[in-house]
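Researcher: Please generate the 3D structure of the following complex. Treat every line as part of one assembly.
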Amino acid sequence: MPKPTILVTGGAGYIGSHTTLELLLAGFTVVIVDNLCNSSVAVVRRLRELAGPEAPELHFIQADILDRSALDKAFAAHQPHAVIHFAGLKAVGESTRDPLTYYDVNVGGSIQLIRAMQKAGCHRLVFSSSASVYGSTPKIQPIPEHLAPSPSIASPYGKTKAHVEDLLQDWVASDAQVGVTLLRYFNPIGAHPSGQIGEDPKGTPNNLMPYLAQVATQTRPYLPVFGDSYATSDGTCIRDYLHVVDLALGHLAALRDLQLGVCEAYNLGTGCGTSVLELIHLMSETVGRELPYRILPMRPGDVKELRADPSKAQAKLGWVAHRTVKEMCEDTWKWRTLNPHGYETTGNAHEH
Ligand SMILES: NC(=O)c1ccc[n+]([C@@H]2O[C@H](COP(=O)([O-])OP(=O)(O)OC[C@H]3O[C@@H](n4cnc5c(N)ncnc54)[C@H](O)[C@@H]3O)[C@@H](O)[C@H]2O)c1
Ligand SMILES: *[C@@H]1O[C@H](CO)[C@@H](O)[C@H](O)[C@H]1NC(C)=O
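Model: Done. Output below.
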């Protein structure tokens, strides 16, 4: 029997594209709904190539999740069995300057999506949440799921994730026929090992790994490191990095397990911490030269350490992030060297 269709909002983006590929490889038909505000249509052709001629169909609909009629049309045309909801805005700094746009897209867009699901009778949703719902002073490390939500969430971005979690919980409480899984990602980095899809930030990268990758390609002279006097082994901040392919596979595990009438949250991380200096060192080793960095003052709001307790996902979903930080560095480097200018490299700006 053919596997059902999955509708993936934000499927052209970094995590969405890796998840779409794993869905196709596992035999699911996929419908991407993405307005391309932070991604390239070139992704779609690469996904079809990587999935191969035997893979189920991949449909692409360029639409905004705020556009209810476009969503209704997509649901009517494809009758998806479940939705994985990645679409949203995620630049923390920008969310502080323009909170209304973040609430509009992340919260308002989720509401439109849920309404479209209700209308179409689609009952299953997997939502991209974030470790940021744990706030800036998590009391326990590694962090278990029951710690959230936190009143100390530092950014409007993080708050939009907590609000959507709340509204999804209320939605499930109101209707025993729907089921939702909240996936709280820690720090996804890396790229598909083929080097054909990866993270392609426009402008100055907001996150450590994409910035470091641009230092490696000499697009940027050095990596700014914000603070080296935290109470950690080498004084720099510690994060729980996980390979984006492991993260993608976490979504397949969540879909497989999804039960109606419940809203469950899972951390997706490795449980291991890596400091900024350790990551620079591993990336330097991968690239074969010392990558320059400069220590700058600490940034207010930065958390010393963020590490997942991933035991719930392991016990209930049978999911474990296996790939090492070295593999994350190697796959990032392969993606960067094959695509020094991201998706624009191939000159396919006009493809459809
Ligand atoms: N990357 C991370 O470190 C991280 C961590 C935790 C949570 N998340 C969440 O995971 C999800 C995916 O993140 P990503 O890193 O792949 O980001 P991304 O920006 O690469 O992907 C988001 C995609 O959504 C699309 N999109 C944005 N607004 C839209 C709209 N109004 N209508 C339709 N499409 C829209 C963008 O074009 C993009 O393709 C986001 O919800 C993000 O908040 C990411
Ligand atoms: C766009 O994607 C890049 C790369 O993942 C990310 O750094 C940036 O925050 C995203 N922008 C928005 C507005 O979400």
